[in-house]
Amino acid sequence: MTVFGNLRPAGVAALAAGAALALAACSPSPSATPDPSTPASAPATAATSLTASPSPSASPNTSATVGALVEGFPQQLLPLMPGATVVSSSFDKASAPATAALVGTVAAPTAAVLDFYTKALEGQGFKAVPGEAVGAVASKDFVRGDNETVNLSLVEAAGVATFTIGANVPAESAK
Question: Cα 39 to the chain's mean position, in Å?
Answer without folding.
Answer: 38
